Amino acid sequence: AVDGSCYAWLEAGGRALRVRRTAAGGAAVRLDAASVAGAAGALGPPSIDRHGWVWVVPAAPGASPAVLPAADPRVPPVAVEQPPDGLGGRLLRVRASRDGARLLVVAEDGGGVTRVRVHAVVRDGGGRPVRLGPGSPELAPGAGRVLDASWLGGDRVALLVRPGAGGDPLVLLPQVLGPVQLLAPVPGGESVAAGSGDRDVVVGTSDGRLLVRSGAGWAQLARGRHPSYPG
What we know:
The chain is mostly beta strands. 0% of the residues lie in helices and 48% in strands. It is globular. The chain folds into two domains: 1-138, Methylamine Dehydrogenase, Chain H, CATH 2.130.10.10; 140-231. The strands form five sheets. Strands 4-5-6-7 form a four-stranded antiparallel β-sheet, with no helix packed on it. It has a four-stranded antiparallel β-sheet with strand order 8-9-10-11, with no helix packed on it. The protein has no helices and 19 strands.
């Protein structure tokens, strides 16, 4: 969570989600993927919005994202209504924006093509997300298969993309409703996280390195995999 009040992570190959309150002092609450509608036995990486809701990502085609309260993760997750035109296929990733007003969605259609859009989040009087608005135009269409995605500040995102012609993954920095910035290829890149500025982009590689931008290329920051900023 942005305020550090809780952590959420996947285990058992995505078949379970754990949520732990930092102030509770107890064990993390486990949520089995089988208990989430549309999970099909696996979940995508969670995201925690600034209003205290953990976004759960079912992996079955046509499934809706779901939310549960970080303050009481034993409450069963509730599905968030999709926009009328749907979300474009099987959910791979969702990331709540830092202002909590938008959701970055990576979905895979029936032909195996990944698409990235941003949706407005509509909430009830208690702040619970109840439905998603229509999607933005697709971000970086035709760039290749999206491996991971993260918000970069308030109006840009960082996408780790494997080009359709093969080769090393690339980092793209599209602006929502704006241009796309292309960064250098990252051999072995498998995950990406971004903070508030261009120099806050971190890429995790399959051989266990965390890379940050250095000039026009990349330099090792530390050992590790799957970096993540709060949210």
